[in-house]
Design a protein that fits this description.
52 residues; mainly beta; 0% helix
Length: 52
């Protein structure tokens, strides 16, 4: 397996605010074991509200 390293990216957290996020490869123990989620309302509280 090849390591891709980590990346820093700008993310917009509010209309006028940005922060730096660090993206890194996940390890097996980072992954959830319970994937249950209210997927239909997942984006409800974001600016990217998905209409169904």
């Amino acid at each position: 397996m090849t390591t891709i390293g980590s990346y820093q990216v700008k993310v917009q957290i509010q209309p006028t605010a940005e922060e730096i996020a660090c993206l890194s490869p996940a390890r097996e123990n980072d992954m959830p074991i319970d994937w249950s989620c209210n997927w239909l309302n997942f984006w409800k509280n974001t600016s990217f509200d998905v209409k169904t």
